[in-house]
Amino acid sequence: MSAQPRTARGTRTRARLLAAAEDVFASAGYHDASIVRITEQAGIGLGTFYLYFGGKQEIFDEVVDDLNARVRHAMTEAARAAEDRFDAEREGFRAFFRFTAQHPALYRIIRQAEFVSPGAQRRHYERIVRSYAHGLAAAQDAGEVRPLDPEIAAWALMGMGELIGMRYILWEAGGDGGTGGAPRDIPDHVLDELMALIQRGLAPDAPPSAATSREDVRHD
Amino acid sequence: MSAQPRTARGTRTRARLLAAAEDVFASAGYHDASIVRITEQAGIGLGTFYLYFGGKQEIFDEVVDDLNARVRHAMTEAARAAEDRFDAEREGFRAFFRFTAQHPALYRIIRQAEFVSPGAQRRHYERIVRSYAHGLAAAQDAGEVRPLDPEIAAWALMGMGELIGMRYILWEAGGDGGTGGAPRDIPDHVLDELMALIQRGLAPDAPPSAATSREDVRHD
Amino acid sequence: MSAQPRTARGTRTRARLLAAAEDVFASAGYHDASIVRITEQAGIGLGTFYLYFGGKQEIFDEVVDDLNARVRHAMTEAARAAEDRFDAEREGFRAFFRFTAQHPALYRIIRQAEFVSPGAQRRHYERIVRSYAHGLAAAQDAGEVRPLDPEIAAWALMGMGELIGMRYILWEAGGDGGTGGAPRDIPDHVLDELMALIQRGLAPDAPPSAATSREDVRHD
Amino acid sequence: MSAQPRTARGTRTRARLLAAAEDVFASAGYHDASIVRITEQAGIGLGTFYLYFGGKQEIFDEVVDDLNARVRHAMTEAARAAEDRFDAEREGFRAFFRFTAQHPALYRIIRQAEFVSPGAQRRHYERIVRSYAHGLAAAQDAGEVRPLDPEIAAWALMGMGELIGMRYILWEAGGDGGTGGAPRDIPDHVLDELMALIQRGLAPDAPPSAATSREDVRHD
DNA sequence: AATGAATGAGAGTTCATTCAT
DNA sequence: GATGAATGAACTCTCATTCAT
């Protein structure tokens, strides 16, 4: 069972373990991330680990929750500075991609959680969706978003972000899966395309003329 | 090193191993999927495994490629029967969700590939994106889709499908992460919402006349 | 249980197995010499092996006995051509070294026999010693060799040959233990020194003057 | 990778492993000497082994080096107490045989090293030869040994010791290859014969009369 | 608070041997 | 006579976890 540190020194030790664990989980994967490796990276003794965490799975969960809180914080902060809803959405995505670039651990860890800790994984996604759906609902009330089920939309949007981030941030970074190279921002044109898709979908613009419908287009 | 069987009996054995591996990888995860478990499930001797596969990772890769081929086949088949592009897209997604419901292995296995076999994972996503982007490009030429970068859009669409599938197929199924329960189709309203999003995005409909806005709709 | 072949084809198969086994045992060592490898090298099917040999150990023993017969044959032949006993001994050694150069398998296999088949090892050494001791005894009777225990001397001589061969034939060949390089004869000066040692031992030549003997030295 | 123990307890554990390994390698042979057996004999847990040794081969090498150091120490100590060179040689051999009797591991292990660790084997022989050759060279300078190549002679002498030891110590002991029975000293008459051979070789004593030589004998 | 020696279940893998074809 | 698919015991090695110091 984990224990909260009682001294300042203990607090530092615990924090170092958490940071080391994020690193090691991200670079080696849950199963190849041995406790020895984590403690070595943290620069503390092996046995000390069990003073602060109940086991491997427990520290994993905590790392997931920590990353989740941080990415949501980054997104909210970015969105708050925005002027309108569309801008907010754009900045939220940008913040998400930036966080991904700076903390590839996020992806790599979340995906592993599938088996390691399904609960933690679910928590992660649901928390993001919740705030997303909340924003959408508000926007709907404000007439900025058309009538739709905010939760379904939120899951879809998150999915877009997830795979676009994987492809254009993680894979670009290392060229081989993201294990090397410097983090980079999302290219502008990718973000532009993504936002356009989110706003308008795939459908061609309605022609200026009155009664446009898909049937008409087809005759063309 | 894997070897191709030289007899009919060998071919059967190899196939049984692959099927068992898909099962075990999906239910237990790569790391807890021991060779013993796979061979037991396949009903063959432990040593026999190494007659056909070089090791765990090798059979994993083959399972991934196999699932990938099958899901793409299912999607293409479904889309081919469609009458127009919109319908094709809808049926493609439906097929994908149905496949997900019937083979939860797909998700569970792909996500693990992150560390187990990054190459296989990448191959999987890229293959799907390729045919997706191809379809979008063709639709663009036909004027059915507005001008956009087909690859970026393909990644985004795939992401939507991925998370919607996770949430409304996998999680619903078992209620706890997908380890039990009967597979079910995607609920109609979810698919409807998704398709609407893909077609039109979030933006409110452009008012036909001057002052139309959501406020009007609401009074209804 | 091994079986003698009943057909000409069978005889050839058996011989090929034996030859392959000698090769593989010599290059890989008993334990890393798998039956598969032996049969592959022999170009026959795995199961066929058990038609001719009862098992790994059985073919090993046969290889040892075969090598033993051949090295003894080579030595006897060489000695027979010699003119006197000293010459015979020299030529016997030379033949032994030449055989060693051409069949490093001899050493490598005999030494492994220590555990694999102590009986075969013992047989090998004893057979060589027997003929050696026999020759020494005869030479003694002829007054060409001073009175001594022929068996003890035979073991000692064989030991000299063994380590000289190891050092100046096997190790020279590959430079690293004998796994490569072309076989070479024993250098003349090495053989000369060895023969001198066998004939005269280490002691300095008795001084030409009359009564010198080791007794004198001792008084000192 | 092996590691040096950091505590007194660790040092004791490591030593116990080394001793057990010597035992097991000697009685079972390298390949049948499983780590389990070694740790069981040492009375420690299996995993503990890997705290101190990188693997089987690594502990094997260390056992070889250890035995080598000990046998050379025994020989040098014995020789040091001797009064003259001849005596020194005799006592050196006797010490070697005694060590052999007390540590049959020496032979059994060295011979296996042929494949298991050629480097260790070579090191073993070369170290012994080096000190041997050194002693011979010194004796030569003192006029106690006739002119000869000390290295070649050293290899030959070592070979004598090796096979005499095998035959009259190891094989006598158990009667069946040395796996049982009490260790015993080399019988005096064997040592006497050996020393005589080393001193004087095989040649008959020069007859007291003047011009005797082998040429004369031949005419006979 | 901190340490690292010790543990053993369990993993992947090899291979001598059997036997149906 | 010849084959190779099948087997499972046995091996080496890893690592989360415990505990005496």
UniProtKB/TrEMBL annotation, chains A, B, C, D:
Keywords in alphabetical order: DNA-binding, Transcription, Transcription regulation
Annotated ranges, domain HTH tetR-type: 11-71
DNA-binding region(s), residue ranges: 34-53
Entry-linked Pfam families: TetR_N
Superkingdom of the organism of origin: Bacteria
PANTHER family the UniProt entry points to: HTH-TYPE TRANSCRIPTIONAL REGULATOR BETI, HTH-TYPE TRANSCRIPTIONAL REGULATOR RUTR
Protein name in UniProt: TetR/AcrR family transcriptional regulator
Organism (species): Sinomonas flava
